[in-house]
């Protein structure tokens, strides 16, 4: 099923005024207030995987609040005012802890050279969009969550080698995240780097196990 309006997991959406009129599943009073306060600050919500019984045009969104509180929203797509892909590596540099910035710069240079669009999600993205020093998402144990979109086999293989080598050299921050496949489903980069016979892939509508060979066949090797 095609995601409504071209939305994908880890994208971000800003909602229209009167967003609560478009709820497919009610929120309790506390959750509604927290979501409203977040949105009143001009902040977006993250796109999450849809559920099997969702109707065409439905969307699933999430709000993460400091302290690991999570609020899930089930809405009609008409509530969306605009949407965007995950913020880029350089977009979040000033938000990231100082000790992360060299690694972010290195990743930005690497993925730029490889032609691999890369976005940030997870705690760093929430901190970026919160724009509020009193809302603390990042801790000393936070991972750096990334979504990579390689378009060919050569850039994918180089990217996996470089990420694996980086992790062997330094552990802070731990690099987590996903490789988006050409069919728009995604697989954890660490799992793909291990080259098992089968891997779990996630799309907007499903989670499934797929053979490694079928996943790699989705990529075309870039001509020299």
TrEMBL record:
What species does this protein belong to? Paramagnetospirillum magnetotacticum MS-1
Under NCBIfam families, the record lists: malonate_mdcG
User: Which Gene Ontology molecular function entries are recorded, alphabetically?
Assistant: nucleotidyltransferase activity
Q: Which UniProt keywords apply?
A: Nucleotidyltransferase, Transferase
Show the Pfam families listed in the entry.
MdcG, MdcG_N
The answer to whether UniProt assigns keyword rRNA processing to this entry is no
Name it.
Answer: Phosphoribosyl-dephospho-CoA transferase
Keyword Cell membrane included in the entry's annotation: no
- Which part of the chain is the Phosphoribosyl-dephospho-CoA transferase MdcG N-terminal domain? 9-86
What residues does the Phosphoribosyl-dephospho-CoA transferase MdcG C-terminal domain cover?
A: 89-210
């Amino acid at each position: 099923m095609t995601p409504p309006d071209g939305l994908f997991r880890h994208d971000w959406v800003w909602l229209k005024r009167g967003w609560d009129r478009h709820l497919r599943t009610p929120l309790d009073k506390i959750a509604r207030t927290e979501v409203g306060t977040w949105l009143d600050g001009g902040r977006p919500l993250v796109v999450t995987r849809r559920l099997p019984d969702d109707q065409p045009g439905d969307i699933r969104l999430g709000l993460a609040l400091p302290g690991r509180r999570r609020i899930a929203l089930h809405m009609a797509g008409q509530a969306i005012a605009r949407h965007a892909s995950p913020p880029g590596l350089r977009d979040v540099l000033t938000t990231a802890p100082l000790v992360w910035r060299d690694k972010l710069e290195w990743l930005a240079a690497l993925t730029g050279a490889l032609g691999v669009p890369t976005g940030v999600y997870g705690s760093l993205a929430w901190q970026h969009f919160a724009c509020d020093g009193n809302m603390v998402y990042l801790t000393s144990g936070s991972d750096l969550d990334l979504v990579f979109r390689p378009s060919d086999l050569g850039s994918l293989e180089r990217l996996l080698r470089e990420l694996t080598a980086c992790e062997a050299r330094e552990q802070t921050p731990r690099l987590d995240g996903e490789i988006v496949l050409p069919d728009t489903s995604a697989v954890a980069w660490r799992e793909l780097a291990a080259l098992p016979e089968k891997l779990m892939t996630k799309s907007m509508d499903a989670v499934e196990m797929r053979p490694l060979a079928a996943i790699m066949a989705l990529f075309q090797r870039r001509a020299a």
